[in-house]
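Hi everyone,

Forwarding the result from last night's run.
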Amino acid sequence: MKVTFIKHSSYFVELNSYCLLFDYTEGAVPETEKPLYVFASHSHGDHFSPAVFNLPRENWETYYLLSDDIWEESVPEAFRDQVVFVSPHQTYAVGAVKVAALESTDLGVAFLVQCEGKLLYHAGDLNCWVWDGAPKYQNDRMMEQYRQELEFLRDRKIDLAFVPLDPRQEQDFDLGMKMFFEAADAKCVFPMHMWEDYSVVPLFKSTPGYEDFSRRLMDVSAPGQDFVIE
């Protein structure tokens, strides 16, 4: 597998016969003639843009799996028969992929994708969004909601995962990632939602007690990086 970091929460994954593109809004996408599956986890502007319909794919097979909070009017009429709208806690079979949707703790869904014998997870905005200064009951409720969704991933052997590591959470920037590692058996984890502050990656990896996590967290530091995963 080849993984390319596009920008923010957007990643491109090239498999043997298919390609997957997650949460694209802007940036350079690798060219491919393979069938392409385009995922959008929710309607926030940093995760979805109608620009996904402007990719140069005129003569190639393309499928779109969009969270159901994205307005149908956002989809050009010529593409609507290629779109599947995805709801939380539902499963879908689209072409060569099988998809299970988790419910985000913010908006929309997270994707658990099976393709070519691989299992991939893209969190979208499913994260433990606790904030310094927020009421304790609010943060406690958030932790419980996140923990409940992660139970769906418990003990699953995930080949690739894309998980938020957001510096805006300050001292709690690592919480959602830590809880994900504790719940899921993931081989390679790519951080996302870093708002171009990539210092949180070495900061997480150097945290005492995170040695096992750090071995599996990829060193993402700039858009356009490529990673080859065996």
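The CA atoms of residues 1 and 229 lie 5 Å apart.

Cheers,
N.
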